[in-house]
Amino acid sequence: MSKKVLLTSFSTWLPHQKSNSSDDLLHEVTKDDSFPASLTTLRQLPVDIHQASNLVIERINQLNPHLIISCGMAERREILTVESQARRENHLIETWVKLERLTAGLKMTNISHDAGKFVCEGLYYSLLKHLRDRRIQTPCIFVHVPLLSEQNLPDIKADFSEIINRLLIFES
């Protein structure tokens, strides 16, 4: 049986945004059928913590994925950033994925300790809490995606694909 990967992205939230780079990246990555897993996407989530969290948790409960990667756009960042933690008020939850190992040697990826205090962090916190509270050991990370261009897309896509493949291997 093929492993199941759940990938999520957001819709836009500001008038100047023609698209959300997280959604654009998922579109590009899912065109590739060489992954040793079944990729399921939940794209263009509403930019609302409660609605987005409910939709993703519902899909997690239906799909029972082996891996969860949620993505959001970070217009001011220039590379992929994998978030180490999420906060809600005075509560902090860290991912249990070993991010140093995951990102080692990747050209366009760093670890971030600031998920942004917006809907991205709210969703990430909700997902980590849901998994922790139900003692579900599914690896879950949040990746911020910079604006994509013809110049950076090949390297960003390659790193993101490698993240998926490494998680499938590391977390087996």
Automatic annotation (TrEMBL):
Keyword Protease belongs to the record: yes
The UniProt record lists the keyword tRNA processing: no
Family matches, as InterPro entries: Peptidase_C15-like, Peptidase_C15-like_sf
SUPFAM superfamilies in UniProt: Pyrrolidone carboxyl peptidase (pyroglutamate aminopeptidase)
Keyword annotations from UniProtKB, A to Z: Hydrolase, Protease, Thiol protease
One Pfam match: Peptidase_C15
Family (UniProt): Belongs to the peptidase C15 family.
Protein's UniProt name: Peptidase C15
